[in-house]
Amino acid sequence: MAVWVPGIIFESVNMQDPACWRLAAYRARGGYQALQKIITQPLLPDAVIEEVKASGLRGRGGAGFPTGLKWSFMPKTACTKYIVCNTDEGEPGTFKDRDILTYNPHAVIEGMIIGGYAMGAQVGYNYIHGEIFELYERFEEALAEANEAGLLGDHILGADFSFRLYAHHGYGAYICGEETALIESIEGKKGQPRFRPPFPASVGLYGQPTTVNNTESFASIPFIIRDGAKTFLARGILNNGGTKLFSVSGHVSQPGNYEVSLGTPFADLLALAGGVKGDRPLKAVIPGGSSSPVLPGRIMMDLNMDYDAIAKAGSMLGSGAVIVIAEGTCMVKVLERLAYFYHEESCGQCTPCREGTGWLYRIIHRIEHGQGCLEDLLLLDTIGNNMAGRTICVLADAAVFPVRSFLKHFRDEFEYHIHHKDHIKQHDWPSFDR
User: Fold this and answer.
1) Angle between the 33-40 and 105-119 helix axes, to the nearest 10 degrees?
2) Arithmetic mean of pLDDT, 306-319
3) Which of 117, 221, 243, 386 qualifies as a cystine partner to 111, CB 3.0-4.6 A?
């Protein structure tokens, strides 16, 4: 998938150059200057964490938790500590981390080295989704370059600081993107979530303190340290520092990854992606990956793309995977496909999730195929209430959020399906145009 607008993550990256991901190209555009800065000044670990806090960087994997604050949870005690990069993106609509590893893997490596320095970790792992083996191989090559250049290993750049970094090829299961399931998977076990507490910051990989961050989060760190937190913060808005990669897919003319400042109007992002394909009216948008609640197009056109604005509207920015849905699309069919994904990807550990995701899919499937009844809508709500918040991880919640939001905003389509055994041809929006 192409990247159309370079920002902080893809600053000066010439994507037409097949060697743009190599160490030499990364260094030519200022790569590893941030690592040099913390070693030569030197910047104490706590100062690095404070700089990340001041940048306003929020976790790019979905939760949006402040990265610097998360780093400060790592205990100061002298023990083996780990940091883990989560490149296990597997949710429908997400594909930004793949482009980061394709075009700029050394930004992730440098960000993880700096994270290891700041948190006192000696070892790091990058957990790469099992279905993108070619990027695992590329990351391995980038690691070899960094090791050979003395950027990894013992006494990095001559300092009293050692850090080892490894790539770990995952198993292609969606649940392994959940941080404790990911940790279990690295340890060679079945990828299933752990009960919390204890949290990974206290008891993580191999029972030791561990911090897990998303690929885009680590790739943002070199810019923050090299150019300063204020510069990064100024590229976004208050409480939403920096730029953000948005993976725009669905009914748009130019699907791809677009890196824009947080706070950019959705209308501008849609225009960058070429607008709705075929000049059809915008019907709906899933703004943060398939687990985030859907919003009608008329609402999205008035929103800015930042964590707070999207949350206030009743959805989530999530991983920044924007799925655009054009007028004329059957929303029952869309929800059926989403429900099937979560039914297939439930790890089966918790009964409410294992059974509930199956019930959600089967009920929506029979509505879509003209066999539903009005009582099914109430049943979907009841099942959702018995799933959300009742499992070890949030996969059950992720399955319920779309169901609730589709019924909230497009209930008339489900009722039409039930009464007419067909889908609505055109939605009648009263005031769609801006």
Assistant:
1) 20
2) 93
3) 221
